[in-house]
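ok, trying the design again with the full structure, not the truncated one.
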C-alpha cells in the first residue's frame, strides 16, 4: 500500500481510525505562533493545488482560514463557532480547512505555482481582515490561469455569528453560489 503525503501527515493510514476519532473531539490548541488550531485542520505541505485536489479526492471542499495572533474574532471562531457540535461536525464532514497566518513567513505554493510567504499570499489575494475564509472551486482546472480575485467561489471577511457561519459553509457545499448571492441564500433559509 502506497501512502500519500496527506495520509502520513494525518497519521490516519498508519495509526488507524481510533486516533483520528479521538483527535476530532479534542479542544483547539494554542500554537507557538499564537493561533488557535483545531486538531482536525488540514496538515499540509502548503501546496494549494495539491490540497484542493486532496480535498476533492475525499469528496470535500477546500477552504483557507486566515488568522492573526491576538485576533479576538479568530479566537471567538474557534471557541464558539467551531465548538458547536452541529457546526464542527458539518465542517469536518464536508471541508478541508487550511489555516494560514496573514503575517506568516511560511512558504506557500499558490495555484499558479508561485512560491511565496503567507504574508505575500494574503496581499496577493487582498486578505485584509481576520478571520477571513476563502472557498475554492471543486477542481484545480483552470485556476492557475485565473487572476487571484477570480479563483475563489466565496469569501467571508471577518467574524460571523454561528448560525450565519454554518449557513456559509452550507452555501458553498451546496454550490448555491452558482445561482445566488450569499445574502439571497440567507434570506431564503431564514424564511
Amino acid at each position: 500500500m502506497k501512502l500519500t503525503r496527506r495520509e502520513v501527515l494525518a497519521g490516519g493510514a498508519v495509526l488507524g481510525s481510533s486516533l483520528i476519532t479521538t483527535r476530532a473531539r479534542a479542544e483547539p490548541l494554542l500554537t507557538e505562533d499564537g493561533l488557535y488550531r483545531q486538531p482536525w485542520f488540514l496538515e499540509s505541505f502548503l501546496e494549494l493545488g495539491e490540497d484542493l485536489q486532496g480535498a476533492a479526492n475525499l469528496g470535500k471542499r477546500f477552504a483557507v482560514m486566515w488568522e492573526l495572533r491576538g485576533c479576538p474574532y479568530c479566537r471567538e471562531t474557534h471557541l464558539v463557532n467551531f465548538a458547536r457540535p452541529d457546526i464542527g461536525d458539518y465542517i469536518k464532514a464536508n471541508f478541508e480547512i487550511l489555516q494560514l497566518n496573514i503575517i506568516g513567513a511560511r512558504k506557500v505554493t499558490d495555484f499558479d505555482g508561485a512560491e511565496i510567504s503567507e504574508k505575500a499570499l494574503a496581499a496577493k489575494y487582498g486578505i485584509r481582515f481576520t478571520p477571513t475564509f476563502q472557498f475554492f472551486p471543486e477542481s484545480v482546472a483552470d485556476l492557475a490561469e485565473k487572476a487571484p480575485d477570480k479563483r475563489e467561489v466565496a469569501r467571508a471577511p471577518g467574524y460571523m455569528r454561528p448560525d450565519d457561519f454554518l449557513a456559509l459553509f452550507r452555501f458553498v457545499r451546496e454550490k448555491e453560489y452558482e445561482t445566488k448571492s450569499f445574502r439571497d441564500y440567507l434570506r431564503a433559509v431564514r424564511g
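Keeping the full-length input from now on. Strands lie at 29-30, 36-37, 61-67, 95-101, 107-109, 115-117, 132-135, 154-157.
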